[in-house]
Write a structure and sequence with these properties.
With about 675 residues, the chain is α/β, with parallel strands linked by helices. Among the domains are: about 80 residues, no CATH class; about 300 residues, Up-down Bundle (ABC transporter transmembrane region fold), CATH 1.20.1560.10. About 55% of the residues lie in helices and about 10% in strands. A hairpin with a 2-residue loop joins β1 and β2. α5 packs parallel to α8, α6 runs parallel beside α12 and α11 packs antiparallel against α12. The radius of gyration is 36 Å and the shape is elongated. The two termini are about 40 Å apart.
Amino acid sequence: MTRILVTHRVHFLPRCDAVIVMDGGKIVHFGSYDELKEQGVDFGEEENSEGEEEMVPVKGSEEAAVAPLVTIDQKEKARQKEKGKNLITEEEKEEGEVESRAYSRYANAGGSCLFAGFILVQGGGRAFEVLSTFWLAYWAEMEITNDSNYYINVYAFLSMMGVVALTVRSIMMAVHRLRASRTIHAQLTNSVLRAPVAFFDVTPIGRVLNRFAADMDKIDLELTNSLSQGVNTLWQVVGAIGAISMATKGMFLVPLVPLSFMYYKIQKWFRRSSANLQRVTSVTNSPIFTDFSQMLSGTSTIRAYRTEKQFFEQCIKSFNVHNASYTLVQLANNWLGLRLDFLGGFISFFIGAISVGLKGNNFISAGWLGLALSYSIEVTGFLKHGVRMIATIEEQMTSVERVLHYADNIEPEAPETIPDKDPKEGTWPKVGAVEITNASMRYRDGPLVLRDLSVSIQGGEKIGVVGRTGSGKSSLMIVLFRITELSNGIISIDDIDTATVGTNALRSSLSIIPQEPVLFSNTVRYNLDPFYDKTEEELWTVLEKVQLADAIKALPSTLNEPVAEGGENFSQGQRQLICIARALLRKPRILVMDEATASIDNETDALIQKMIRENFREATVLTIAHRLNTIMDSDKILVLDNGKLAEFDTPSVLLDKQDGIFKAMVAKSMVRKSGSSNSLRALTAV
């Protein structure tokens, strides 16, 4: 099998049969590692991981002992992947009918007075419509006179008032729709944006997208139309029943009571199942969004491993489950339609029987009887449509229910601002001293990942943080930013407990350069200065410092050049340098580098280290280094082991410490790099 390894880690190169060195998109060197070394090709020197990828030979045959290697990191990832299967929580689903709270919340979101006014105006419009038909029937009963203009004018007035009422109704409903959608969307957005990171650990992104996409789409478009039709149908039924009752002089009221009871029972039975079926349909929609988002972000990986068929089958499976639940919804609608048609036919039969029975009788005139027959035909459709709309509205209200569940039940992280405690902007921290006292932290209900950690960091010190996988390095940075709260202990910055200030004040006082540089789909200017509070001169100054000015000037729109999703139109090194430029603009007193040089070439690595040394001299810098050589010039090294403080001193002291963890990590890194224990003599040079 041909294996192609694309890497910046040159210690793997001696194991390769051939090496290709590229520069500017071209092959500049090709040959074996030894041949290229003899030609003087400089691959760069790198000290590798602090034990994070400690190689462990696989026991077995001689052949197996030479090539296959398993890393501790891979074992940990496999274990975490298996654990992650039980991490995702089951999506919540309400049972039974939608609570009245959802209806009232929706009405209040757009304005309760506006919603009530809409209902009343809709009823007024229906009243004018019924009155106009009554006027026609009354006119038909009158003897022929020359005073037709009077009847025409009254009929025109009633019709015009109906048109005005419906116009006002439409305007009020449109305004209510806009307000309600904005309010509910704002509540959902605020709740999700304020959610702690732990929420996203246990919630697939597809569920969140389903709320913002499918559920909000129903609220924006379908629900308002259904409510409008439902209210209109309600008044149509009331008007038709009233008209028939008046035309038949109350005779229609005799079968109305049992018919109303039957309609009520049918819609009760239907609503009980239809709401649950719609909830199931909404829940089965989430995996479709999850599958799509995963395939979209992992397209290159899927194609590289030729797993298109597996992902296609997974998508088909998700669609089949969703379509099965949707089919049940349609079958339930057919069940309802059959029974409503039967009741509607009975109403028409009853009115027809009255007409035949009263033939030749002056009890009801022909004009009023015709009016009753006309409305009996209409009321059948009105009642059928009304029951359907009640069920449809409840089905669509499940989307409001689902959105409000996120808006109300996601526990937010700590407050963004605490007015009485937050320091004034720009006044804190002044020194950058960090004091950690008995700090303990766990993720969700898991075991402690930091255990009684205590360390004192002076302002302006450069601290390297090392430790094997699972030692708590990244967790230390997480609690520093309060991404996850401490279970116990205190973290103070310049003698101020970080738990007593708002998250905005804390996080704005810190800067981070992450391992994976984060760029947003906007412009270069926005990614450098998202708050637009820096001058263009300041932007170009920091770009000069990170040696990106020429590259940005070469772009067609320079600072206004669009940044693709994830910054894909920039190289990995350029994205990293943009993140450093962003940190430089903020001039922080505390800078955190979370494995910031793990996946870039040595030249850019050296440039980044130079930038940090030159531009953050006065700042406190905490660095989680993926390569030990990046922290050997630190003031102190913080060694973590199983969440506890193992060692904390200067590099020289730790290298002289017998049986020291840091010394062993450096030795192991150098042995792996050269493949010989003779490299241990290089420790004296360090």
